[in-house]
Amino acid sequence: MRSTRLPGLDVLRGIAILMVLVRHSPLPDSWWLKQVGWLGVDLFFVLSGFLVSRLLFQEFEKTGTVRPLRFLIRRGFKIYPSYYVFIGATALYPYLMYGRGYSWKLLVLESAFVQNYVPAIWIHTWSLAVEEHFYFALAGLTFLFMYRKWLGQPKIVFSFLTLLWGTVVALRWLHCQGQPETFYFFQTHLRADGLILGVGLAYGVQQYHWKEIIRRWRNRILPMAVLLCLPAVLWPAGSYVMNVAGLPLINLGFALWVGLSLCHTQPTSRWLHPLDSSLRLLGQYSYNVYLWHMLVRLAGQDWELGTTTFLLLYFTGSLLLGLGATWGIEKPMLKIRDRIWAHYD
Q1: What local confidence, expressed as pLDDT, does residue 343 receive?
Q2: Is the Cα dihedral 82, 111, 57, 44 positive or negative?
Q3: Which among 116, 255, 245, 154 is positioned nearest to 195, based on CA atoms?
Q4: Packing angle between helix 193-208 and helix 154-176, nearest 10 degrees?
Q5: Which pLDDT score, from 0 to 100, does residue 304 have?
Q6: CB-based burial of residue 85 (10 Å sphere; 0-12 exposed, 13-18 middle, 19+ buried)?
Q7: pLDDT, tens only, 297-345
Q8: Residue 128 pLDDT
Q9: CA of 119: how far to CAs of 105, 110, 116, 122, in Å?
């Protein structure tokens, strides 16, 4: 079967997971790459918005309908097995290390994908909750738009997405009023603007063949993408100006980068080719690397390793665990999924 992967998007996923790994690493906080690494999550949001909504838009273009239940079950086969094995490891680890475990309440909340609204065990799974909420909202809204015969009307779709994006940005601005000088937020209704931009890009690519337009104008789009991402180096993470103005601009820049990645061609330079291939490979394992990397960090802290050993364990262990979970859990479950759905499609 011919692969349907988009290599440019895998490169961006590889960059995004590297940013997150550096952000959560034991490297000094003064490192610039660590200071901007938090934006890897927002790059993931734009990528997910594009990739996941593209599946539904392609189905609608091909069949004239969308099947939200099928979509959600197929996503579940990809997301849930690895996630709940991770939750099992989360429950088991403190018993092995400390002789006591997390409360059942925390484990249930973490398992229910609501940890971005309530106390959580981990500092990174909030983004998985945002994406899970997005999947359900996307499936329901896409079905509604199809039922009302709006899905094939770009003016209605883009107007709705613009209104939704503006609402998220406005809610974030309201949330920021009266907050401390530096603060962070993780709620879905305050972080969904990147996902919405990804949906808009996917719809434009599907309906208007934006890929060809991007290819034709990429030399002008590239500097725009760079300029829109400049707040990452101008304003500190968690500051009022970053939360209110910087993040929306950066997400717009990320949307342009995702669009540009659709025109990706493998570099011929002997220096860039290995880098490109490595990022593409890393991008294919990014979900499980992201999922497990904080458990590896916790183990390194508990073992009180030296800095160099800790860094080596953190990066190597995260990659190996992500690789193992992908091949040992995710891929077998996807084969089962495809075998099941072959009888219904």
Answers
A1: 60
A2: negative
A3: 255
A4: 170
A5: 87
A6: middle
A7: 999 999 888 889 999 999 999 999 999 999 999 999 999 999 887 666 5
A8: 98
A9: 10, 9, 8, 9
Q: Are 21 and 318 in contact (CB under 8 A)?
A: yes
Q: How far apart are CA 153 and CA 317, in angstroms?
A: 48
Rg of the Cα atoms in the chain:
20
Residues 6+ apart with CB under 8 A from 154: 203, 207, 208
Q: Tell me, what amino acid is at 86?
A: F
Is residue 239 helix, strand or coil?
strand
Residue numbers of the chain with a pLDDT score lower than 50:
1-2
User: What's the pLDDT score for residue 305?
Assistant: 87
Place of tokens 């104008």: 217
Whole-number pLDDT of residue 272 = 81
Phi-psi map region of 305: left, alpha, beta (phi>0 left; psi -120 to 50 alpha): beta
Q: Any idea what the Cα angle at residue 111 is, between residues 110 and 115, rounded to 5°?
A: 30
Beta bridge partners of 182: 239
> Closest Cα to residue 11, out of 330, 295, 291, 286?
286
Which of 125, 242, 135 lies closest to 181, judged by CA? 242
